[in-house]
Write a structure and sequence with these properties.
Length: 475
C-alpha cells in the first residue's frame, strides 16, 4: 500500500491565509497602487457626508450616470443616481431582467466618527473663546485633544440661505484644537497615595478658537464678541444661527502613504470611505448584464442608522419603487419587497485587523489580517450574536464561489470583527437590509486604529475589495 502524501493532503484540505504581496504579480501590484491614488484624492475631498455625496455625484456623472429626476423611462444599460437630502446617495445600472425579480446590491456608509458643534457652542472663559462639541459615533475621547482639527459643514441663515464652511484644510487656513493637561500636573493622588490619571470626558472636548478681544471696555465677553464679529463679517453668521447649522470638527490631516514601501494608507475616515469608494468604482467599471446593479451610500450608520438618511429610512423603498415604475413595472410596495426578497446584497463595511500589540482581544484562528485580502464577515454583533444578521451558509458559499473565479481576489472569512466572543464586537447596516428579507453578507477591508482620528488600511486590501465588489456585480 502506497504511503499517503500528507503534505500534499495538508495543502489540499487546510486553510491558509495568503499575503497578497506574495501572490500578486507586478502588474496587479501596480494597478493596486494606482487605484489607491484615486482613493486618497477622494478621502481628501470627502471628510463629511455632504462632501462625500457631492464627490460621489461627480464620479457618477463622469461615468455616464444621470439624475433620476431627469429621466422619464429606464431601459437596459441606463445609469441613474439619486442624492437624498445631500447626505446619502444611490446609483443604479439597469439590467435586462425585471427589477422585481431581484438585483445586485452593495451598501456602505459615508459617515465617520467626528465632533459636532452643540446648538449653542460659543463661549468665553479665561479670556479665551471655545466651541463646545458633542461627539458623534463611538470614539476614544483621549485621542481627540492636541491634534489639529478643521471645521466643515453648512449654516442656514435667516431666510434659508445656505452658507458652506470649510476651514482648516488649506495650508493657509487656521486650525482648531482641543487642549489637554500637561503630564507634570496630571498626577492627582487617591486616598492611598496611588497616582490616578484624569480621564477625558465628553464635556472636555472643547475647541479653542480665539484669544484676541474687541477693544471695548463695556463689553463683558470681549473675545467671544470678537469671534462673532469675524463670523458675521465673513459668513453673515450670528450666534442664533448655530442652531440651524451642521458643523463638524474633523482631523485636517491629508491621506498619506504609510511605510517605507508605501503599502499602507494613513487617513481620517477609512471607516467607511474605503468600502464606499471601492463599491462606487466597482459599479462604474462593471459590465452590463442581466441583473440590475445598485450601489448605496448611507448616512447615520455610526449612530444606529436612524433618521431620514439612514439605512432604516424608507427612502430606499421609494427609490426602488421609482426604478420599478420607470422600468414599466408597478411600483407597489409588494413589488418593492419582492425585489428585496429576490436580491443578493453585500454590506460593505470595515472590520478590525489583528494588531500585533493587542493580540489578546482577537480570536487569532478567525481574525482577519492586514494585507491578507478583503474580509467576508459571516456575522457581526457582540456577545451572543446580539444585533447581527448572520448570512446563511448557502449565501456565503455563493459569494465564495464568485470570488474564487478570479485568482487576484484574495479574501478572508471572519466573524464578530475577529474578536474573542465576549471581548467586543459591533453591528453594521446588514441587519437593517436583512429585515427587508434580503440575502446579505458583510464584506470589507480590515483596519488598524478603527474610529481613531487617523486609521490605517492596506492598499492591497482596498484593491481586493474593489475586485470583489466588481465580481459580485458582474456574476
Amino acid at each position: 500500500m502506497a504511503k499517503k502524501n500528507y503534505k500534499k493532503l495538508e495543502e489540499q484540505l487546510t486553510l491558509k491565509k495568503k499575503n497578497i504581496w506574495e501572490v500578486w504579480d507586478d502588474k496587479t501590484k501596480k494597478e493596486a497602487f494606482s487605484f489607491a491614488e484615486g482613493y486618497k484624492e477622494f478621502l481628501n475631498q470627502a471628510k463629511t457626508e455632504r462632501e462625500a455625496t457631492r464627490a460621489g455625484i461627480l464620479i457618477a456623472k463622469q461615468n455616464g450616470f444621470k439624475n433620476i429626476a431627469e429621466v422619464k423611462n429606464l431601459k437596459f444599460g441606463d445609469k441613474v443616481y439619486y442624492a437624498h437630502r445631500n447626505r446619502s446617495l444611490i446609483l443604479a445600472t439597469i439590467g435586462k431582467e425585471k427589477i422585481s425579480n431581484g438585483f445586485r446590491f452593495i451598501m456602505s456608509h459615508i459617515d465617520s466618527p467626528h465632533l459636532d458643534l452643540k446648538v449653542t457652542p460659543l463661549y468665553e472663559e479665561e479670556n479665551l473663546a471655545f466651541f463646545k462639541t458633542h461627539y458623534y459615533g463611538g470614539i476614544k475621547k483621549y485621542q481627540w485633544p492636541t491634534i489639529a482639527l478643521a471645521l466643515h459643514g453648512v449654516v442656514y441663515l435667516a431666510g434659508g440661505k445656505e452658507m458652506e464652511i470649510n476651514i482648516g484644510e488649506d495650508i493657509n487656513d487656521p486650525v482648531f484644537m482641543i487642549t489637554d493637561l500637561l503630564p507634570h500636573l496630571d498626577r492627582p493622588t487617591g486616598p492611598g497615595g496611588e497616582i490616578r490619571k484624569r480621564e477625558v470626558q465628553g464635556e472636555d472636548l472643547n475647541l479653542l478658537i480665539g484669544s484676541i478681544p474687541v477693544n471695548e471696555k463695556n463689553v463683558k465677553e470681549k473675545v467671544k464678541l470678537a469671534v462673532l464679529e469675524y463670523l458675521f463679517n465673513k459668513y453673515g453668521i450670528k450666534e442664533d444661527d448655530f442652531a440651524s447649522a451642521e458643523l463638524e470638527a474633523v482631523p485636517c490631516e491629508k491621506a498619506r502613504d504609510l511605510g517605507f514601501d508605501r503599502s499602507l494608507i494613513c487617513a481620517y475616515g477609512h471607516d467607511d470611505s474605503i468600502c464606499s469608494f471601492a463599491a462606487i468604482k466597482a459599479l462604474a467599471d462593471s459590465k452590463n448584464n442581466e441583473i440590475t446593479k445598485i450601489c448605496v451610500w448611507i448616512d447615520r450608520e455610526e449612530i444606529g442608522s436612524e433618521g431620514a438618511t439612514g439605512a432604516q429610512s424608507i427612502f430606499i423603498e421609494n427609490f426602488i419603487a421609482n426604478l420599478l415604475e420607470l422600468s414599466g413595472e408597478e411600483g407597489k410596495i409588494k413589488n418593492v419587497y419582492a425585489a428585496f426578497s429576490n436580491a443578493k446584497a453585500i454590506s460593505a463595511d470595515v472590520c478590525a485587523g489583528v494588531d500585533p500589540d493587542y493580540k489578546d482581544v482577537f480570536d487569532l484562528r478567525s481574525a482577519p489580517r492586514l494585507g491578507a485580502g478583503a474580509v467576508m464577515e459571516k456575522y457581526t454583533g457582540a456577545g451572543g450574536k446580539v444585533h447581527t444578521s448572520e448570512a446563511s451558509a448557502k449565501f456565503v458559499r455563493e459569494i465564495k464561489d464568485i470570488l474564487n473565479k478570479n485568482k487576484n481576489i484574495i479574501y478572508q472569512v471572519s466573524g464578530n470583527l475577529g474578536a474573542k466572543v465576549d471581548l467586543g464586537g459591533g453591528g453594521t447596516i446588514a441587519m437593517f437590509m436583512a429585515n427587508r428579507d434580503m440575502d446579505i453578507v458583510d464584506m470589507g477591508v480590515p483596519l488598524f486604529n478603527m474610529h481613531a482620528p487617523l486609521e490605517i488600511a492596506s492598499k492591497a486590501d482596498l484593491y481586493c475589495a474593489y475586485l470583489g465588489y466588481k465580481a459580485f456585480f458582474e456574476n
